[in-house]
Amino acid sequence: MIHSIYNLTRKGWLKALSFILALLLFIVILLNPQVFASYFGGHVPYLAIFVFYGMAILWIHGIGLDIHRTFWQLLFLPIMGYLIVISTLIFLILLK
Q1: Which of 23, 27, 41, 47 could be a cystine partner for 37, CB 3.0 to 4.6 Å?
Q2: Which domain holds residue 18?
Q3: How many domains does the chain have?
């Protein structure tokens, strides 16, 4: 089941989207570090780790790394990265 979910995101345009979203989140964090630190590192610092985890998932998927083991596919599922990064970007962009 994990293989079929992971194979849904093995398309080239989704890998490009992963790279672009990870790069966009990196740029937003780089340009507004105080906003990111105050909202994601203030009261609950685990949220910042969660956001970096989502960004790492999309970097790995975006550069084209193919994962073959089921455990690692589950850990680095691109759909999870999309949910984390898109919700973070929406939250950070709406705060401006």
Answers
A1: 41
A2: 10-95
A3: 1
